[in-house]
Amino acid sequence: EPEVTQTPSHQVTQMGQEVILRCVPISNHLYFYWYRQILGQKVEFLVSFYNNEISEKSEIFDDQFSVERPDGSNFTLKIRSTKLEDSAMYFCASSEGGGSGETQYFGPGTRLLVL
Amino acid sequence: AQKITQTQPGMFVQEKEAVTLDCTYDTSDPSYGLFWYKQPSSGEMIFLIYQGSYDQQNATEGRYSLNFQKARKSANLVISASQLGDSAMYFCAMREGDNDMRFGAGTRLTVKP
Questions:
Q1: What is the pLDDT of residues A67-80, one digit of tens each?
Q2: Of A52, B2, B7, B92, which is least packed with CB atoms within 10 Å of its CB?
């Protein structure tokens, strides 16, 4: 069964450093998403991406964040200058379509720790 | 304002019994989707079941069923015949139209042997 994959599974970085989180969405899916989950808290939407551009972003997704689809398979989230409060689990998700009825399938997550 | 409310931070159920996890939502959009995800201790988010706002019947997927009461804006997850492997966090989520998906705070389910 096709699945979303994410690398790395864990990342430790120093405050102020740049990190890139990588995702490979399900191959026939056209809509891609990033979410984060701070330890013990709810899952929060960051950004959605379709047709090579951001379709929606939350207030969390400020200028320190960017997303890219560098090739036909990868979807990346870059945090330019990490802060302590960026420590969280980051989930990539993908869906075939973009409507309210489309199921988003999540990857296993990348656990980011900023020291 | 909270869009998705899960009022049960933790629930316990005896193995082989059924359990209901509550979820209420708030929207004025007539078109929306409701989702339940399971998050085991390993951290991944596993899709369980979906209910569309226009669906006439309650969704079912194996041991999972969704008790959809549109007028009350509730979408409770029912797990029948609980198994030890059902112990996890369960998140209710809603997507209105083409907007982003919003998650509830989650319910931690513990299945007792």
A1: 999 887 899 999 99
A2: A52
pLDDT above 70 for B10? yes
Measured between CB atoms, does B86 come within 8 Å of chain A?
no
Beta-carbon contacts of residue A7 (< 8 Å; ≥ 6 apart): A22, A110
Q: Which of A64, A43, A67, A65 is nearest to A55 (CA)?
A: A67
Q: Which two tokens stand for residue B13?
A: 């159920």
CA-based nearest residue to A101, from B50, B107, B111, B72: B50
CA distance A104 to B48: 11
DSSP 3-state assignment of B39?
A: strand
Which residues in chain A are contacts of B46 at CB distance < 8 A? 106
Which pLDDT tens digit goes with each residue over B91-109?
A: 999 998 777 899 999 999 9
Q: What CA–CA distance (Å, rounded) separates A12 from A112?
A: 6
Check: CB of residue A76 under 8 Å from CB of residue A70. Answer: yes
- A positions 1-30 inside 8 Å of B (CB): none
* B104 neighbors B63 (Cβ within 8 angstroms): no
Mean pLDDT rounded to a whole number for chain B: 94
